[in-house]
Hints:
Blueprint: H1 5-9, H2 57-76, H3 84-93, H4 96-111, H5 115-136, H6 139-150, H7 159-175, H8 181-211, E1 214-216, H9 227-239, E2 245-247, H10 264-275, H11 287-303, H12 309-314, H13 322-353, H14 362-377, H15 381-384, H16 390-406, E3 409-412, E4 424-429, E5 435-444, E6 454-459, E7 470-477, H17 490-507, H18 528-534, H19 540-546, H20 558-566, H21 572-590, H22 601-611, H23 629-632, H24 641-659, H25 665-676, H26 684-692, H27 699-704
Parallel strand pairs: 5-7
Antiparallel strand pairs: 1-2, 3-4, 4-5, 6-7
Zinc ion binds at residues 1-2, 498, 502, 527, 530.
Amino acid sequence: xxxxxxxxxxxxxxxxxxxxxxxxxxxxxxxxxxxxxxxxxxxxxxxxxxxxxxxxxxxxxxxxxxxxxxxxxxxxxxxxxxxxxxxxxxxxxxxxxxxxxxxxxxxxxxxxxxxxxxxxxxxxxxxxxxxxxxxxxxxxxxxxxxxxxxxxxxxxxxxxxxxxxxxxxxxxxxxxxxxxxxxxxxxxxxxxxxxxxxxxxxxxxxxxxxxxxxxxxxxxxxxxxxxxxxxxxxxxxxxxxxxxxxxxxxxxxxxxxxxxxxxxxxxxxxxxxxxxxxxxxxxxxxxxxxxxxxxxxxxxxxxxxxxxxxxxxxxxxxxxxxxxxxxxxxxxxxxxxxxxxxxxxxxxxxxxxxxxxxxxxxxxxxxxxxxxxxxxxxxxxxxxxxxxxxxxxxxxxxxxxxxxxxxxxxxxxxxxxxxxxxxxxxxxxxxxxxxxxxxxxxxxxxxxxxxxxxxxxxxxxxxxxxxxxxxxxxxxxxxxxxxxxxxxxxxxxxxxxxxxxxxxxxxxxxxxxxxxxxxxxxxxxxxxxxxxxxxxxxxxxxxxxxxxxxxxxxxxxxxxxxxxxxxxxxxxxxxxxxxxxxxxxxxxxxxxxxxxxxxxxxxxxxxxxxxxxxxxxxxxxxxxxxxxxxxxxxxxxxxxxxxxxxxxxxxxxxxxxxxxxxxxxxxxxxxxxxxxxxxxxxxxxxxxxxxxxxxxxxxxxxxxxxxxxxxx
Length: 712
Ligand SMILES: [Zn+2]
């Protein structure tokens, strides 16, 4: 995962405000005593966490927004004719206080939050959205950008500057800056209605998911769960003042308990609760919202000059068009479904061998595939974890792979202030000894930390502003008791490599303009460097270097290492098919034209899956339309494919490394020079093809997922 300013801006709904100046209430509270007032004097302009107090953030963010609006307005009001220098370059220099304050605030309020920070976050979220609108709907500012854009052929700009001009112009256009006043008014109404519907969808789905919990007073219905799970279920019922046991619903179609519940009727009942959670014809039914949102989004796209919502959303992505994303998914469908069908056969054999006397249904899949997994791939976590001690994984695995590939080295710095004692800071140096970046890591779980793992920047690299990158990784690994080693699972090892892949994208950033730097790339590209870096976790020369017993230092026994490796391909037909089904649903909804009639979600869904050859009885989509919150409640509309798209890129890229000697400095340096350091300074598809020597293909992805049918 990747968080940061770009993620916030890209969070989907553009709430169009009409205010072009923001209230500067906080200006009075903001002065030289605030640690954000002036640029940090610490090395790399690192945030002065020894001086920052929780109450310093809000006045700095408010003053930062006001300052940026004044700076932008000064550009808009400039009496001189618009030039690239006096418009685009000066725009890149605006908002430095805002950037300093929000980077530190977003990091701390995500990883080490307190009630005051939560309050500030809630208050500032809509103001930050309005702040963006105030810039991108400023008509005078847009007219200057547009004037420079019109002359772009004759300006003889260097490629990065031309890219900045194109990207900036495109942002204005996509926000609706080019529309007539009447159309802007309609756009504002559409955005408001969509934003309200999206909120209502989220609220209803939350209630529907809560109501969808499975409740029973009969403990024998829960046979297969552990004593601990049953105690948790009893506690969950009690907390809702109910008798018996309660299993809450997760957001996905499949539910975690279905892997262990041995009573088939219980499994079926839970699945039914999940599948129909938001389709009960009651107050929490979301189907009308889904249909209406699809229609309004199509209309908004039409207004902005696009054939459908997906075309609007994908315009600035690597895939560029819905057709390209659909073509990519279509190419995966035959192998994914064929593999799922063969997995289903394995499962049916188990059912028949046990004289089940029934045909496999979705609620049976996990229960029996778990038995197949145990027979074929059993991996005992307790056996594996002693070989994955956190610091050893970090220094002899994650850092080691980067040293081998890119020649960089790491030196811990204890003199840089941190926001929590668990945070460690490393200075990263280049092969020639030149200093490159600061890297912070904050790996242990805390109650006041958001779930999951992510990467972001405290300081964005920019030659224009003379800034080197300051990046950080956050995770939620279990913290050991004092004096005990932190032993982690292989999934967590992979997560560390993943987040460090994002970090490398930031560390190697080497661009002129801050808005094009590092991870400021498209959604279907940004997970590529991180997922690519995951591959090195299992690369033999890297694996043997870190997978050592924390007590004895002995290498992991080869049979165990082989099991770790083999487990990666388990159940991949199912997993890929359910993802493809969800991604196809998303794309089918969002390629509807504005002229399409209001859809009936169940019929639409069935048709969409049938049309894309993904209507498999035993493999339902990972999310059904009526509870697909990524696309109706979050910012992932027409973007769910991006997960798979970036997987195609990372596997295809790793294939190139395999074909070119594997882990070598020459290959690493070339990748760094042509991809990792380039940020968004080039068209991403062209950048990739220039490095790879051709466009990416799906073959390597099918190979690494174990989907090749040959020899099986
Ligand atoms: Zn990520």
